[in-house]
Amino acid sequence: MTATTHHTYRHAPHPLHAILLAGTVPLFFGALLSDIAYFRTYQIQWSNFSSWLIVGGLVFCGFALLFALANLIRAHYQKGRAMVYFLVLLAAWILGFINSLEHAKDAWATMPVGLILSAIVSVLVLVAAWIGLSDLGDGGDI
Hints:
mainly alpha, 73% helix, elongated, disordered C terminus
């Protein structure tokens, strides 16, 4: 009589990957908050501040995306979670890039599309961080 045991191993993300991924959340969320401030006050500096936060978020997200791609390539089991994580992070980066182009417009021309894109990107990055940094018990390699 043999008993089979199922072992689930969770690989913690590389510390640099975790820092980059976690850094995207406040940068993109800060851009959302500054877009809201610009929408309410019409002070152009809020739009400028948002543009710089988006650029910072894109840099952090881009490097985290490279880590996510490496994890997707080396995932032996449970490729589904690694794929979802990669796709959500990729969607956040692409929409963040479009948002940066939107914020390059002149002053009020960024509204309301820039605000909407900032909200969507903030949610996507939050979901990606949740997937990438939490242990959902499936043994993924993220």
